[in-house]
Amino acid sequence: MRRDTGFPVADSENDFLKVRRSQVLSRLAAWLRRVPDDVNIMLPFDEVVAALGWQGERVLGLRVIRLASIVGSVDRTRDFDRRFRPTSARVRERWQRIALAQRRGEAVPPIDVYRVGELHFVRDGHHRVSVALALGSETIEANVTEVRTRLSAEGIRHRGDLIVKGYRRLFLERVPLTGAARAAVLVTDAWDYAQLGEHVEAWGFRLMQDEGVFLDRATIARRWYEEEYQPVVGMLRQADLIGDRTETEAYLWVAAERYRLIRTHHWTDEVIAALRDKHDRGRRAG
Asked: In this structure, what DSSP letter does residue 50 have?
C-alpha cells in the first residue's frame, strides 16, 4: 500500500527509491534461486517478430492497454527489467520528474507500442510505464501499431521461448500443415522441430519414389499427417506408448527406434511389439 507524505517532490523521490530497492531484491532472489537470466529481461521486439515471422502491420491509434500486457521493448533497453523497474540510478532524474508530474495531476502523453498478439512492446515511453506501474496503475494510454505474424505469440514468456517458436516457424515452412494438423503437431524441444522436418521430407521423398510423381510440400504435409502421423499416433495410444511426452514427441521417438531396431520404414505388429518391449524395459530400468 502506497503511503504519501503530502509533499509531491519527496513522495516522487521515495517512489524511485522503493522501486529500485524492489528491483535489487528481486535480482538477488533470482540469483539465490538460480533462476535463468532471461526471466527478468525484457523481451526484445525484433527477436520476437523474427521468431514468429513478420507479415505486416497496421496503425490502430490511441488505445487503453493493460500494463501487465507490456512485456518488452523495441530498443532493447537495459535501463529497466522485465517489470519495468529501473536497473540503475541513471534514469532517476527523468523518472522522478514524470512521477512528480503524475502526482500533481499533470497530463502525461500516451506511450507508443507495438502489439503482437496480446503482447505489447514499448517504442517510446519506458519511463512512463515504469512510473505508472510503481504508482499502482493497471492501464495506460498508448498509440498502438499492430504487427501480424505467421505464428501466434501465445505461450511466449521468456527469451528462451523464442527459440522454440523460431524452429517451429521454420518447420512449418518446410512442412506447411494447416488447420487441426498444424495445431496437433507440437514438441517442447526446439531441436525436435528440425529433426521432424527432416523426417517428413524423407517420408515425402519415399512417397514420390513409390508413386513415381512429384508432390509439392503442401501435399506431402497433408498426406504425411493423414497417412502416417494420425494412424501411428492412434497405435501408440492403444499400445500405451505416449507416456508423458507430447504425441508428436512420442511419434518421433518410435519412428527413430523403429528404423534402428527393425531397419524398416513400415509399421507392422512386429514393429509395435519390439517398440513396446523396449519401452517396458526402459521403464523397469528407470
From this structure: H
Cβ–Cβ under 8 Å, residues 42 and 73: yes
CA distances, 173 to each of 52, 105, 150, 207 (Å): 12, 51, 10, 19
Q: Which residues of the chain have pLDDT under 50?
A: 1, 35-36, 38-39
Long-range contacts from 34-38, C-beta under 8 angstroms, 24+ separation: 36/158, 36/160, 38/158, 38/159, 38/160
Q: Tally Cβ neighbours within 10 Å of residue 37.
A: 12
Q: Residue 246 carries which DSSP code?
A: -
Contact of 50 with 169, CB cutoff 8 Å: no
Tell me the pLDDT tens digit for each residue of 135-159.
Answer: 889 999 999 999 999 999 988 877 7
Amino acid in the structure at residue 58 = R
Angle at 169 between CA 167 and CA 174, to 5 degrees: 95
Task: Identify which of 254, 248, 107, 120 has the alpha carbon closest to the alpha carbon of residue 184.
Answer: 248
H-run or E-run covering 58: strand 54-66
Is the dihedral angle over the CA atoms 222, 226, 228, 233 positive or is it negative? positive
- DSSP letter string over 233-245? HHHHHHTT--TTS
pLDDT in the model for residue 241: 77
Grid cell of 169 as nine digits: 516457424
Show me where the domains of the chain are located. Answer: 8-149, 175-285
Q: How far apart are the first and last CA of the chain?
A: 51
Q: What is the 3-state secondary structure (H, E, C) of 85-149?
A: CECCHHHHHHHHHHHHHHHCCCCCCCEEEEEECCEEEEEECHHHHHHHHHCCCCEEEEEEEEEEE
The topology under which CATH files domain 8-149 is 3.90.1530
